[in-house]
Amino acid sequence: MSNAVVRKTLVSLAIAGAVTTAQADVVIGVAGPHTGAYAAFGAQLWNGASAAAKAINDAGGINGEMIKLIKADDACEPKQAVSVANRLVDSDEAVAVVGHFCSSSSIPASNIYEEAGVLQVTPASTAPGLTDRGLPNVFRVCGRDDQQGDVAATYIVDVLGAKKVAVIHDKDTYGKGLADAMKSSLNAYGVKEVLYEGLTRGEKDFNALVTKIRSVDADVVYFGGLHSEAGPLVRQMREQGLTAKFMSGDGITSYEFVSVAGSPKYVDGVLMTFGADPTSYAEGKAVVKEFRDSGIEPEGYVMYSYAAMQVVAEALQNTDLDPVKASDWLHANKVETVMGTKAFDEKGDLLVSDYVMYEWDKNGTYNMLGM
Amino acid sequence: MDIILQQLVNGLSLGSVYGLIAIGYTMVYGIIGMINFAHGDVYMVSAYITAVAIALLSFFGIESFPVIIFGTLIFTIFVTGVYGWVIERIAYRPLRGSSRLSILISAIGMSLILQNYVQLSQGAKQQGVPTLLSGAIRFDIGDGFVQITYMKLFILFASFIGMAALTYIIQKTKLGRMCRATQQDPKMASILGINTDKIISTVFVIGATMAALAGVLVTLDYGGFDFYVGFIIGIKAFTAAVLGGIGSLPGAMLGGIILGLSEALFAGLVSSDYKDVFSFSLLVVILIFRPSGLLGKPEVEKV
Asked: How far apart (Å, rounded) are the C-alpha atoms in residues B63 and B142?
């Protein structure tokens, strides 16, 4: 996504804001890594949420009040997430937040939103710990890592028939959580991993780890983490002549995975678990077309963020803009979104999760696999 | 056996890159006694310049590998050298003679400026360069094999040439003599007719060119980079410089190789989770027994 598009969106939002300043605005934060190594995901969140907000405002806003979005940058740093959450709550007086992206940011921030009675709907944080703590105000429109890990483990055992699985993670809440979830499912199916190791986020040289993977003769390498580490890891595996299958989760769902690996040939054959194609829902066809017409590919979490914003708006609409009541409302009611009807359980997780397996191809795109 | 050999190759290529960057830290420390925290970011800038150079060369339809690699090296080393010179000029020279602390803070500020300037001008996203040199040599040993990519060989070769050329300049040329004189006693050197300001600038440029060499090699090898890549590798290279004895040129190279090897061997044989813990513990142990690093000279208080 180009900067020009962000700027245009910002400008149009600024104009929309200027026109409607006479009315009270509904302030909603869009929190995620808008800068830093994971900024691609922040851009996905922003594109989805701002398009949804624009559509809602064009249709008359929430009970006649316009949505005003605030971009809150956590850079995927837990400390920064806490400070932007405080800022959103205190000085911006947000009633709801779409975000954060990284689970390690969503979890500490959720406590602040809970204290302030702010509704939080994350489009992307999949760590079980986010909703397992029983906070009433936290929801997600994506699945959970234990569901995702189980889909991965089932595929490894049933489809690939692998016996030697190396499990690698990035020592972060999301990456390690996903890797652990996959590992425990794998162990439950009677396969013991041959290697379990962590790498350091931000490094680029994983050759030593790759050689170690080679020494245990793994058939499948499962990586819990994000694309900025997955790219060099898979490239260095191929460069050292390791042909094992590479599998990861929804953390690599960005076309930047290809550029950080250096070439589409390195991502060819990489497997990835992700929700069933978010652009395939009949309800979202018009929105997908709008995105493509305006030059934005609705990849990764764009549609999820759109849906998250719709969930927030629908809940606020039905509870007269009271975020605390909106949380109760969401636990009891269904919401129509661009990704189909979403309903939440008492923890704030989706009642139905829809993880499936994708495969990257030699052109650097990913396609859903029939299982 | 094959695994150990492969780990040695991994460690050597990583270590030679650390060594190249460590040279920038060690030379600047040697001559003006400051830690140039912006050095890692100079390396990061060189990664972007590498991508620009490759794009320019392919725009002009040049496709042969030797031409691209040498064109990229010359372009990147030149532009990064200019960066090194300008940084010294605007951030450090005005503070010459003031306390070490203010220069240190100026360096940290420069580091932040470079990161944010690149982030704003180039975008926060991950960038990539195409693979120029693919393929590898494979040695079969018993049941296993050692595979070394041509790019890794090129890294070892180019860093060896870079370090040898630099050693020659410092040990054998007039410029090197002036550098060493300024390092030993700046006041005396300037009384004897050496333009010490110019020598200090030159040292910054040399440090930046070595970082640029590393930047080109690493960018071509790993393919991807972003505005934040200078941070971790900068810290590692600084560690290497301290390990080898900050201020000592062979020390920086030795420190880089030791750090690279220890990381690779520990990650490979024990655990990659704790490789940084091991490297830094090694640093602590070495500094306990040799407080000025492996090849560093103990600081003599001049009376």
From this structure: 39
Of B76, B253, B66, which Cα lies nearest the Cα of B154?
B66
A350 lies in some domain: no
| Angle in degrees, CA A352, A358, A361, rounded to 5 | 165
Tell me the nearest-neighbour CA distance from B110 into chain A, angstroms.
18
Whole-model pTM over 0.80: yes
Nearest by CB: A256 against B125, B145, B222:
B125
Q: How far apart are CA A56 and CA A89, in angstroms?
A: 23
Task: Determine contact, residues A284/A339, Cβ cutoff 8 Å.
Answer: yes
Please tell me which of the candidates B14, B268, B276 has its beta carbon nearest to residue A200.
B276
Q: Are A217 and B24 in contact (CB under 8 A)?
A: no
Task: Check: CB of residue A368 under 8 Å from CB of residue A277.
Answer: yes
Q: Is A39 on the interface with B (CB under 8 A)?
A: yes
In which domain, by residue range, is B102 found? 2-289
Going by C-alpha positions, the residue among A131, A69, A129, A66 that lies closest to residue A98 is A69
Contacts of A122 (CB under 8 A, 6+ apart): A98, A99, A100, A101, A106, A130, A138, A139, A140, A141, A142, A308
Inspect the interface and report whether the beta carbons of B264 and A207 lie closer than 8 Å. Answer: yes
Any idea what the CATH number is for the domain that residue A87 is in?
3.40.50.2300
- Provide the number of structural domains found in chain A: 2
Q: Does A326 touch chain B (CB under 8 A)?
A: no
What's the domain count of chain B? 1
* Same domain, yes or no: A160 and A118: no
Q: From the CA of A181, how many Å to the nearest CA of chain B? A: 19
Contact indicator for A193, A186 with CB cutoff of 8 Å = yes
Partner-chain contact A202 B231, CB within 8 Å:
yes
Burial of residue A346 (CB within 10 Å: 0-12, 13-18, 19+) is exposed
pLDDT digits (tens), chain B, 303 positions: 788 999 999 999 999 999 999 999 999 998 888 899 999 999 999 999 999 999 999 888 887 888 999 999 999 999 999 999 999 999 999 998 888 889 999 999 999 999 999 988 987 778 888 888 888 888 888 778 888 999 999 999 999 999 999 999 999 999 999 999 998 888 999 999 999 999 999 999 999 999 999 999 999 998 888 888 899 899 999 999 999 998 889 999 999 999 999 999 999 889 888 998 998 999 999 999 998 899 987 766 555
Contacts of A208 in chain B (CB under 8 A): 7, 10-11, 14, 263-265, 267-268, 272, 275
